[in-house]
Write a sequence for this structure.
């Protein structure tokens, strides 16, 4: 039997360290500081964005308008209704003024011709 040369086996990967065996006090403090920093930053961002989120939610829900805004809106609607009622009357008054101007202008022309 002929034996072929065998390649050496690759070395086994190192085992992960056991919990607490290599952990130093500085490493644990750095981890705690990182977690506290991330939580603090998250809370700050949430506090800054919260009013925007609340306003967006109210807009999506069709939030109830305040009584002052509702009263102002009702007042504006009443004024628009009044203006719509006045428009035909204004057109009639314009026609009357035009007619009066024509009558007055006709009344003056004969005076000019007679002199």
């Amino acid at each position: 039997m002929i034996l072929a040369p065998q390649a050496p086996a690759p070395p086994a990967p190192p085992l992960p360290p056991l919990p607490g065996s290599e952990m130093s006090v500085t490493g644990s403090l750095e981890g705690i500081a990182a977690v506290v920093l991330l939580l603090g930053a998250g809370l700050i961002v949430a506090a800054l964005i919260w009013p925007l989120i609340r306003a967006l939610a109210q807009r999506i829900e069709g939030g109830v308008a305040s009584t002052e805004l509702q009263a102002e809106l009702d007042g504006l609607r009443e004024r628009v209704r009044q203006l719509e009622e006045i428009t035909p009357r204004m057109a009639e008054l314009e026609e009357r003024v035009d007619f009066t101007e024509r009558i007055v202008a006709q009344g003056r022309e004969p005076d000019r011709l007679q002199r």
User: Anything to note?
Assistant: The first helix runs from residue 25 to 61. The chain has a mean pLDDT of 82. The two ends are 152 Å apart (CA to CA). Helices lie at 25-61, 67-114.
